[in-house]
């Protein structure tokens, strides 16, 4: 085989990275470039889509340059992207219409509240598996269309296009105004509120509900098939995969079977559980989403639970309290004591996500006595991530009827041994860390490699997955239960601290 | 006993001057304040800049205290920080070499294992982070002995316990072996800790080039030392490259 590598492009919230992987799934080269975050008003977060496209071009070339390889040595490109970030652009000029509206942006909260009051609003969770919230794309499209006069008509004619970041990147790679391919994949489409989760097609009634013209939408394709051939940046290379970043991590962690789950620990935590070929409705506040789809095979669905504050609590402990000078030192400080001394921290900084969905909750530190030292606080900080993981896993087990016995983990916090042991202890499940930390990029590369035959099948990919570390539960079950009961009582004390603003969404 | 060295006194005066007030001064201001010739002040400033004790602002050309000076009293590197910075390089080393990777730092006359990556064959392995290894019978330990005088001074003759018939149990043999490590820049241990096993280690350097730990691969002697019981040169290169990459991330500069 002439082609030696698969290229993965991870278009993330803070930066864009290109990584080359070899046949063994090993990382060969990395290039990265950050882009500017724009905050024009409180609650608004924007990216310049042209800046992002220029960064994609740069990092794609740079990753090859670093190992002296040419585009002809790349078998395929796979794309992973920040999810729900939305951009509109002019099909003829290729210029974005305004800046991209980022997933954290809450400008649509009033619009979402108006949608939620409509009698037919139940249609949205029923068809999409998602709550009606500012987080997702459809209200953003509507907001953008309403803002510029004449834009709706141009969108109806198909002169103005919508895309999440993978669509924007694929369209530009394949020529932009000069023959660009306008596609999205099922995972990204599943986060728009416009796709029927069962048919995996745009839903006429949802389009009508949000007032979004079908002509502006990309074609929905699977996560692993050849969408087109690049004519820019890496000319001649086939573009063969796209997945939202958390789904890419699920794929990169080889969670190919029903019941396999991964959690990515960054500033927040994202836990996804593969639930197999049919979507599982959550009655515990989890999101139902598409995990991945390979070519014409049936889609694999997933339950998703997000934890708003995990690593961010350690950062707060470092930056706002100044009790440590670097994030990893939290473990050193926590190890100065044997246990939490009866102290619990619930970091409901901006409400609680799954499974509570309490926007009026605010953080608490409970159990303070004169005995408590900064070491106990450090323990409580780490334990907060463990217990929040447990709550999401409990919700997943209840919704899916599955019993999680192994959690695959990735992200920066997996370097913390005390935390990983604690997660294993409170879940009463094995926690395993894979040898490749870059699971998002690896997932996109795997999907692209599968699509072009660089890797033969899922079993071949599994053989590349190796355990780098494993933590087994060692906590006494009685102690686990009493500590969990304490944690739950601490959580209850966060509820309704502030009254939610009228009209704001659950998030 | 010779008298005080004038240029060091002057350098100290410059540092004291920069440490107070607004903290940013031009070479002229410094020379005037201390009654020095401008050329003399400039020479001292350039030297201080070379060792990182002062920094020069590019736009204004003014001098201020350097980051190195601020960290002078806290050159100690937190072991969890070390793991966090080394984790990706350690994973890559395990993937390339096919062997288990460990990172060790000195603790009370032993090697403390601060990070451990499993051998990538998915066999049953147990994390041994937090366990202690002997200095004299491991490649990790020999690296620490070679580059840290403090560690070497803590090791006493009766610490040289016997593990296998190849363990170096005399101060003389160990000292020869450690001298060889300094020559080569890496250490090997062949069945000195456990029969059938061998390991290769290289130093991890922190700010200013000080050795803060060591990284090793360990595995079956026939894989790690396939020819004539000598460490495989390819594996040695992998270990050294990983150690250098981590050192660069820790700010070790030219090492």
Automatic annotation (TrEMBL), chain B:
<dbReference type="InterPro" id="IPR029016">
    <property type="entry name" value="GAF-like_dom_sf"/>
</dbReference>
<dbReference type="InterPro" id="IPR014757">
    <property type="entry name" value="Tscrpt_reg_IclR_C"/>
</dbReference>
<keyword id="KW-0804">Transcription</keyword>
<dbReference type="GO" id="GO:0006071">
    <property type="term" value="P:glycerol metabolic process"/>
</dbReference>
<keyword id="KW-0238">DNA-binding</keyword>
<keyword id="KW-0319">Glycerol metabolism</keyword>
<dbReference type="InterPro" id="IPR005471">
    <property type="entry name" value="Tscrpt_reg_IclR_N"/>
</dbReference>
<feature type="domain" description="IclR-ED">
    <location>
        <begin position="68"/>
        <end position="252"/>
    </location>
</feature>
<dbReference type="InterPro" id="IPR036390">
    <property type="entry name" value="WH_DNA-bd_sf"/>
</dbReference>
<dbReference type="GO" id="GO:0003677">
    <property type="term" value="F:DNA binding"/>
</dbReference>
<protein>
    <recommendedName>
        <fullName>Glycerol operon regulatory protein</fullName>
    </recommendedName>
</protein>
<dbReference type="InterPro" id="IPR050707">
    <property type="entry name" value="HTH_MetabolicPath_Reg"/>
</dbReference>
<dbReference type="InterPro" id="IPR036388">
    <property type="entry name" value="WH-like_DNA-bd_sf"/>
</dbReference>
<dbReference type="Pfam" id="PF09339">
    <property type="entry name" value="HTH_IclR"/>
</dbReference>
<keyword id="KW-0805">Transcription regulation</keyword>
<dbReference type="GO" id="GO:0045892">
    <property type="term" value="P:negative regulation of DNA-templated transcription"/>
</dbReference>
<comment type="function">
    <text>May be an activator protein for the gylABX operon.</text>
</comment>
<dbReference type="Pfam" id="PF01614">
    <property type="entry name" value="IclR_C"/>
</dbReference>
<feature type="domain" description="HTH iclR-type">
    <location>
        <begin position="5"/>
        <end position="67"/>
    </location>
</feature>
<dbReference type="GO" id="GO:0003700">
    <property type="term" value="F:DNA-binding transcription factor activity"/>
</dbReference>
């Amino acid at each position: 085989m002439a082609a030696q590598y698969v290229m993965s492009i991870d278009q993330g919230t803070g930066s864009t990275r290109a990584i080359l992987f070899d046949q063994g799934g090993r990382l060969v080269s990395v290039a990265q470039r950050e882009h500017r975050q724009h905050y024009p008003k409180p609650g608004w977060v924007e990216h310049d889509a042209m800046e992002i496209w220029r960064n994609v071009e740069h990092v794609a070339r740079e990753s090859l340059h670093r190992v002296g390889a040419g585009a002809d040595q790349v078998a395929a490109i796979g794309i992973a992207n920040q999810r729900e970030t939305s951009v509109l652009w002019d099909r003829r000029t290729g210029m974005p219409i305004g800046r991209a509206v980022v997933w954290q942006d809450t400008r649509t909260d009033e619009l979402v509240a108006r949608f939620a009051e409509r009698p037919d609003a139940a249609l949205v969770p029923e068809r999409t598996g998602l709550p009606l919230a500012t987080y997702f794309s459809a209200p953003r499209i509507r907001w953008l269309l309403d803002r510029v006069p004449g834009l709706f008509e141009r969108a109806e004619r198909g002169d103005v296009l919508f895309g999440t970041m993978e669509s924007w990147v694929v369209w530009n790679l394949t020529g932009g105004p000069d023959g660009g391919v306008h596609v999205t994949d099922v995972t990204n489409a599943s986060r728009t509120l416009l796709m029927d989760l069962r048919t995996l097609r745009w839903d006429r009634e949802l389009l009508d509900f949000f007032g979004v013209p079908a002509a502006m939408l990309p074609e929905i394709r699977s996560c692993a098939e050849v969408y087109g051939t690049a004519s820019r940046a890496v000319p001649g290379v086939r573009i063969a995969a796209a997945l939202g970043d958390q789904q890419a991590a699920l794929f990169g962690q080889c969670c190919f079977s029903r019941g396999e789950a991964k959690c990515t620990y960054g500033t927040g935590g994202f836990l996804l559980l593969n639930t197999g070929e049919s979507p599982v409705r959550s009655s515990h506040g989890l999101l139902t989403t598409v995990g991945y789809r390979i070519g014409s095979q049936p889609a694999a669905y997933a339950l998703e639970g997000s934890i708003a504050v995990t690593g961010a609590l350690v950062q707060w402990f470092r930056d706002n309290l100044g009790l440590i000078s670097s994030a990893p030192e939290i473990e050193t400080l926590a190890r100065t004591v044997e246990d939490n001394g009866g102290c619990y921290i619930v970091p409901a900084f901006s409400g609680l996500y799954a499974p509570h969905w309490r926007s009026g909750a605010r953080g608490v530190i409970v159990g303070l006595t004169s005995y408590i030292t900064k070491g106990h606080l450090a323990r409580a900080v780490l334990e907060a991530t463990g217990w929040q993981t447990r709550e999401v896993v409990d919700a997943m087990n209840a919704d899916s009827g599955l019993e999680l016995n192994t959690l695959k983990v990735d992200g920066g916090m997996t370097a913390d041994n005390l935390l990983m042991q604690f997660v294993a202890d409170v879940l009463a499940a094995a926690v395993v860390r894979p040898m490749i930390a870059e699971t998002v990029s690896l997932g996109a590369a795997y999907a692209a490699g599968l699509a072009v035959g660089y890797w033969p099948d899922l079993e071949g990919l599994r053989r590349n997955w190796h355990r780098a570390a494993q933590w087994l539960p060692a906590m006494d079950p009685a102690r686990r239960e009493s500590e969990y009961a304490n944690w739950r009582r601490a959580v209850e004390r966060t509820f309704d601290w502030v009254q939610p603003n009228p009209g704001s969404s659950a998030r | 006993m010779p008298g005080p060295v004038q240029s060091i006194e002057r350098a100290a005066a410059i540092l004291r001057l920069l440490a107070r007030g607004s903290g940013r001064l031009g070479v002229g201001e410094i020379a005037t304040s201390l009654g020095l010739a401008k050329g003399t002040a400039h020479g001292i400033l350039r030297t201080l800049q070379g060792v990182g004790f002062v920094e020069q602002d590019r736009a204004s050309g003014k001098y201020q205290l350097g980051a190195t000076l601020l960290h002078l009293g806290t050159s100690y590197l937190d072991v969890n920080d070390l793991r966090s910075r080394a984790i990706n390089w350690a994973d890559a080393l395990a993937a390339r070499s096919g062997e288990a990777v460990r990172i060790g730092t000195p603790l009370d006359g032993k090697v403390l294992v601060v990070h451990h990556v499993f051998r990538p064959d998915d066999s049953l392995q147990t994390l041994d982070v937090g366990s202690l290894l002997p200095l004299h019978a491991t490649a990790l330990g020999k690296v620490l002995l070679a580059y840290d005088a403090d560690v070497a001074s803590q090791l006493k003759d009766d610490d040289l316990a016997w593990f296998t018939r190849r363990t170096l149990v005399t101060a003389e043999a160990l000292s020869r072996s450690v001298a060889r490590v300094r020559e080569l820049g890496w250490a090997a241990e062949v069945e000195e800790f456990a029969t059938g096993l061998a390991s290769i280690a290289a130093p991890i350097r922190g700010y200013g080039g000080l050795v803060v730990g060591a990284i090793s691969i360990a595995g079956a002697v026939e894989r790690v030392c396939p020819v004539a019981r000598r460490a495989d040169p390819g594996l040695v290169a992998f270990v050294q490259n990983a150690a250098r990459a981590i050192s660069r991330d820790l700010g070790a500069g030219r090492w």
